[in-house]
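Service request form, structural biology core

Requester: graduate student, group of Dr. S.
Request type: structure prediction, single chain
Budget code: on file
Notes: please return the result as structure tokens.

Sequence provided:
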Amino acid sequence: MQAVKSSGGHAPGRKLFGTDGVRGLANSEPMTADTVMRLGMAAGRRFTRGAHRHTVVIGKDTRLSGYMLEPALTAGFISVGMDVFLVGPIPTPGIAMLTRAMRCDLGVMISASHNAFEDNGIKLFGPDGYKLSDAIEAEIESMMGAGLTDARAESQHLGRAKRLEDASGRYIEYAKTTFPRSLRLDGLKIVVDCANGAAYKVAPTVFWELGAEVIKAGVEPDGFNINRDCGSLYPERMRELVLSHNAHLGLALDGDADRVLFCDEHGQMVDGDQVLALIAGHWQRTSQLNGDAVVSTVMSNLGLERHLQTLNLKLIRTKVGDRYVVERMREAGYNLGGEQSGHIIMGQHATTGDGIIAALQVLAALVEGGKPASQALRLFKAVPQLLRNVKLTGGVDADSVLGLEAVRKAIAAVEKRLSGRGRLVVRKSGTESLIRIMAEGDDAKEVDTVVADLAAAIAQAAA
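Core staff response, request fulfilled:
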């Protein structure tokens, strides 16, 4: 099992865009009203084609800074002649769905996903509902740097803005169509933690309308508490509610609801790898799985790969980021992919990760199989795996650190030590000033040691 190095971060030709759109501290570059307005102008110009009236749909999560960034984006799009549909708080996959359903030229989600409220971000979707490619993001950046005076529409051709009042209802109805019509959730008690984020209204409604008894958490956003001690990043609250209410299943979404983690009726946590295993097996049995394969990233556990092999299925690995999982799925026609972190992409249902629809697929498998979550979601034994972040300070660049001779030698030493017994992934974060180290292998003590040694070496070299 060879070591794997993944750079992550910004692709060549892109400085503004990271692995999942643009992200940063709100009201600091690049997440300022001025820069975001220019981003709207450039993106609008890039997707203006033909003589039809051009439209863009904009959603957001519950962060305070959304009130600043939403009108800034709106101004940018209107200034280049695009009409804007504003939908307010809605899950990211809801924007992807609406972009296609409404025949919009562009979709925008204002969210920093699992980050704290101080951050915010911009995710862009093309008219097909998919996230933009690296090449198109590079084009947009180039347009921003080259000046946008020529992009401005004449006064009589300015766009208009309209608030779309029924957007949440449209997404709720669409999500429910992905659940088998012959099934219901009657008799199931489910804890749903919405992270005080974009799904705080729609997620509980979806499961309740399908018959479940819903214990709600993280449904009181105040602009500051998104992802704070709740949601997929802090699932302990969900776990406690499952145990105290004797629930059958708990699910925790992140701030924009494009990923989900679970716990079973005993409070045991379940990550995205186990979810992929469950859905892959279920779809294989029901002839829904394309290509006899599942697409995931270099971070997925070796135990998942071994389990899929017993089913005569392949695990196709990509670099970190759900967008790269989607790109590989589209290239080869696969219809199931995801990440250990809980992004689950189901090609016949959605163009991006969707925590709510993923949860519905898990629940469908539970209802049809008649097994408790503790059995249905525990399909393989995970290989000991450890992830550690090395925080960079003082403006130190991650690429520069990873290029240092001392760091390269330290990585090579770990690769040699794990040769044949495990995997190593070293990459820079695409959203934060971090270098991420992941090692896995059958010997947990060895994994702990090599990660600690490598983290210390990188920290010392970066100092």
